[in-house]
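User: Can you help me understand a structure? I only have the sequence.
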Amino acid sequence: MNERDIRVRYAPSPTGYPHVGNIRTALFNWLYARHSGGSFIVRIEDTDQSRSVEGAIENILESLEWLGIDWDEGPIAGGDFGPYLQSERLDIYQEAVGRLIEQGDAYYCICSPDKLASMRKEQQKLGKPPGYDRLCRSAGHARKDKYGLNRVARFATPIEGLPVTTDDLIRGEVKVELSVIDDFVILKSDGFPTYHLANVVDDHHMQISHVMRAEEWLPSTPRHLLLYKALSFDPPIFAHLPMILGPDRAKLSKRHGATTLLEYRDEGYLPEAMLNFLVLLGWSLDDETEVMDLTELIKNFSLSRIGKSPAIFDITKLEWMNGIYIRSMPVERLAEHIKNYNFDQKTNVYPGLLDNDYIKQVAALVQDRIRKVSSEEIWRLVSFLLVDDLSYSTELNPKGLDKSETASAIRSVISELGSIKDFNVSTLEPCLRRLAEELNLSTRHLFGAIRLAVTDSNATPPLFETMVVIGRDRVVRRLHGALAILEEIDATK
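Assistant: Let's start by predicting it. Here is the structure, written out as tokens:
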């Protein structure tokens, strides 16, 4: 098969919103298609109607779009091999089942759920592996209409023969004896196919060349190969991707962080950071390179670099990578994130936030410190820049100065600032350093007093840059406000 024939698919089920493992599968398929010049298909496997979640399909597509994963065929995009919702392809599956039954490779099963439960209980009691006992197969049931609609179709797994062999690009050769494969259901009583049948039929009809999916589906592959053979279909090339575990090597869950992709978006992670991070969950370029843009990822992606070992989802590493992408983005883009903050929920908002230049100054000030572009993170870092006046939740005198000393220092700062012609960093810093000497104070004490008065915080971006962004008038107003509180406290002694 040449590269132009490569066709891969992402086939999620709308039984929930996509988590990182699910999207990682989509990403690997997409990167392989883009690297190879092939096609990436999205197919929605909505045959389990009872478990379908409202809005899940929309969430799946939105997750892909947020990461920048486009598809050549599928919902919205269309294509020559649709429909791309399995619920709209029932006639295709019915035809395949009819063919298998006619060939003697499948049969209808009329066993009740109670009968099946009793059978499994008895097998467990005898220490046997659970599986269908082929009662209906020996009875020779063939016509569905003879037994009504509430019956299933089962594949007639060969009793004897060679083991089923999977040549997996990641796992290597995997052999399974026929004796451990039961007569599995291929068509449910509601007329919908099972995963096994639908995948095989659709992958054939959609001309899928490579099936990349989660490791959990590896045990199902022998069943699929039996179906391919019975239907005279050429099987695709299989590659089963490694599991994703938490740092404690347990199955990834909510206690390791958010689980659905769009939760990470809402928490302030950038799509390019998330995409880069997800690629490294099971794939690597080398032992050193971690930060790669999309062009590099597409250029270098190959199935041979996917490992067998479980990948570890480390939220700390994701935050680190997100910070790298934030620091490298144009300041105008970061300003847009800040501008989109929901200020309506806050009171005392600074009117200057309507000024794009001011927002850009705020963005430049915090770009090296911000980890996520979430509302919470923005407010944590720069709330003092976003409000008009401060309410002072912290003590206004730095450690080492009492309130009288702090008040005296602030009076001197107010006076000094009034005499400065140009309110910029190159003027402010030498002026206030000189003032500290005149007052016989350490710069730590004086600058600490100023920082508390103008930001209500002990930890902020560089002081002088911060003061310039706030502006002379607001700085002086805040110094006066702090002084009034200090003088009031001192007067009560």
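Now, to help you interpret it: The chain has a mean pLDDT of 89. Residues 329-387 form one domain. Let me know which part you'd like to focus on.
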